[in-house]
Fold this sequence. Notes:
Layout: H1 21-40
Amino acid sequence: RQALSVLTVSDHLLTGEATTAEERQTTFNDMIVVALEAAIQE
């Protein structure tokens, strides 16, 4: 069996730091590409 987990954090609960909607869209899309590329590698 193989498994892949991708976790993201967009808001820091202690400091209040948060990404904008545009940053989330851009960086999450990049993360998805990396995850899919990793998933198809053998």
